[in-house]
Amino acid sequence: MSEPQPILDPLSLAAIFLVVTIDEGGEAQVRDLLADMPGLRRSVGFRLPGRDLTCVTSIGSSAWDRLFSGPRPAELHEFPGYVGAVHEAPATPGDLLFHIKAQTQDGCFELAMVIGDRLAGAGKIIDQTVGFRYFEQRDLLGFVDGTENPEGKEAVASALIGDEDPDFRDGSYVIVQKYTHPLDEWRALSTEEQERVIGRTKLDDFELSDAEKPANSHVAVNTIEEADGTERKILRANMPFGSVKDGEFGTYYVAYAATPSVTELMLQRMFVGTEEAAYDRILDFSVAVTGTSFFTPANDFFDELPPPPEQASTAAGESPESSGVETTGMSAPFETGHGSLGIGTLKRSR
């Protein structure tokens, strides 16, 4: 029976997010890294007892076809991006996402270094974001972030794939974005006006009443209800990030969902608007810098990866040339490029 990667775990105190692109010809080496990720995490985490080091590994749409043959997740596609009349959510590159989290930053950093070493010559880390817990799970705007996350069975139903895609049961879809905040402009607002932007009280985190809550508030725009009144939810794992030196202050938006359509509808409403609001007013103080979509397989996916495309074609009686696969500059399916025999030397053995 499959089990999900640790996306349902409570938010950690520390995190590092790595977005990676795969070099042409680096597919075999990346496959070896993916197969070894559970063991790499255990090796680092065992030296840090009580730190709860975990890593959620996710794969992008175009990378999936370069790495694997056979079935693919039913709703995996590239991040569409959104262009509204005032604000824009760009779509940016990304083949792999490593969401590394722990109670202290040392374990996150060590595992990030290991991943970087294993990617050498096969992929590039195009974005590294260091996240941290800020007071009682507040963002840098000063508001509690994630209050409406589903819990218990509702969290499972909202975040994890079920029987609708049985080949990928207990997987999830994740969208990540980096937002930066012009804090000087935000701080120029009164607390009462900030609360109208968000739709919640700042100190005690209570949702404003419908009479008080503007239609363009963040809460109002992101509330999606079915015809029967059922609210559609996603599981957010947002974390603040920033640099005082560079004057950069932001939120790393992380949304896990059983279907990306819910997250995408929320983003469409935020940027393109609704019948009641031209856009989500939080965007006047939150600038989207990146946007990428991935699929997060269940844990057992990494125990036995699907065959690579060229191996599947050969097994079917086709030569790489007749299958249309470009072989120039590509490694053989089981060559690793880092001394491994490709037999899962880091898989659980004791």
TrEMBL record:
Belongs to the DyP-type peroxidase family. Its cofactor is heme b. Residues 5-133 form the Dyp-type peroxidase N-terminal domain. Keywords: Iron, Metal-binding, Oxidoreductase, Peroxidase. PANTHER family: DEFERROCHELATASE/PEROXIDASE (PTHR30521), DYP-TYPE PEROXIDASE FAMILY PROTEIN (PTHR30521:SF0). It comes from Nocardia callitridis. Residues 300-350 are annotated as: Disordered. SUPFAM superfamilies: Dimeric alpha+beta barrel (SSF54909). It comes from the Bacteria. Pfam families: Dyp_perox_C, Dyp_perox_N. Residues 311-330 have a biased composition (Polar residues). GO terms for molecular function: peroxidase activity. This is Dyp-type peroxidase. Residues 136-300 form the Dyp-type peroxidase C-terminal domain.
